[in-house]
Specification:
Helix 4 packs antiparallel against helix 5. This protein has 298 residues and is of the alpha+beta class. The protein folds into two domains: 159 residues, Electron Transport, Fmn-binding Protein, Chain A (Pnp Oxidase, Chain A, Roll), CATH 2.30.110; 119 residues, Nuclear Transport Factor 2, Chain: A, CATH 3.10.450.
């Protein structure tokens, strides 16, 4: 049987694992191919995630290329997956770290601020998967859930489980709840900057915020809000567009474009930036922990 040639050059993988009753659960994840074996892929997860629990019961899976939202963009491939540690885990993480630099390193940094389960490696190999006791690699009609309740699957790489529909059409769009929620929160944060709404900014900005302007100037939460309160920096409009979210469970990475109107040092200015910002969840509350922007040519 062939390898995973159709996944070459792809950024995201939709990984479908199966519950005891055969119902598929899909998760968009980061992945890396083994350069020495085109029939082997590496993924990682948290040790107590939903997908890890399902894989310990049986390794039958399906994979397909997708976008950051989980929208499938190619054909499904039947495969076999297993939890690994030791050298296989280290090799997989090395390949993933290299492929997703610097985003993987940013998420690793955020993970230091949170108590997380240990990570486990997942090796996916393309081969026949039907064997006694394993769910067939294909969706079944919805049945009563035979699994105990499972908390949302929160890998540090866009890893929120979604139950597969009975007959999913190619191109159907999915957006994890966290991602859409944070897009709206970030819009509120931008409106608060333009409206000089300090209480809202205090709520949405983390105390350890690192705010890197398009000019490369760095601000903390205190210095950013302080400049607004003093009038040294006055935002008159901040409007986002083309925003997408990568939902990583208790961290969400946003990427998009923002049109900024600002008066700095008494001089008005208007320009567009391409930005990346990260929100982390602490004590049930989402806060922005970093902002990085690059000015776009007019």
């Amino acid at each position: 049987m062939g390898g995973f040639e159709t996944l070459r050059g792809k950024r995201y993988l939709n990984l479908e694992t199966f519950r005891k009753n055969g119902q598929g659960v899909r998760t968009p994840v980061w992945f890396a191919a083994d350069p020495g074996d085109d029939a082997t892929l590496y993924v990682y997860s948290l040790s107590q995630s939903g997908k890890a629990k399902r894989l310990r019961r049986g390794g039958a899976v399906r994979v397909a290329p997708c976008d950051a939202r989980g929208t499938v963009t190619g054909a499904w491939i039947e495969a076999q997956a297993s939890i690994v540690d030791g050298e296989a885990f280290r090799r997989g993480m090395q390949l993933i770290n290299r492929k997703y630099r610097p985003w993987k390193q940013i998420l690793d940094l955020l993970a230091r601020f949170r108590r997380r389960d240990a990570r486990v490696g997942i090796v996916i190999r393309r081969q026949a998967v039907s064997s006694p006791g394993q769910a067939p690699a294909g969706p079944r009609p919805p049945q009563a859930d035979a699994d105990p309740p499972i908390a949302p699957d929160v890998t540090a790489a866009n890893d929120r489980d979604r139950i597969a529909p009975r007959t999913p059409p190619t191109g159907e769009k999915h957006m994890a709840d966290n991602g859409q929620h944070i897009i709206e929160l970030d819009r509120q944060r931008m409106q608060a900057m333009a409206g000089k709404d300090i209480p809202t900014l205090n709520k949405l900005l983390a105390d350890e915020l690192i705010y890197c302007h398009s000019s490369a100037r760095l601000d903390t939460k205190q210095s950013l809000i302080g400049a607004m309160q003093s009038g040294a920096t006055v935002y008159t409009g901040v409007e986002p567009s083309e925003v997408i979210a990568q939902d990583c469970g208790d961290a969400v990475v946003l990427s998009g474009i923002a049109r900024i109107n600002v008066v700095s040092g008494g001089k008005p200015n208007a320009f567009s930036v391409r930005f990346t910002d990260v929100y982390a969840k602490r004590g049930g509350q989402w806060q922005m922990v970093t902002w990085q922007s690059t000015r776009l040519p007019e």
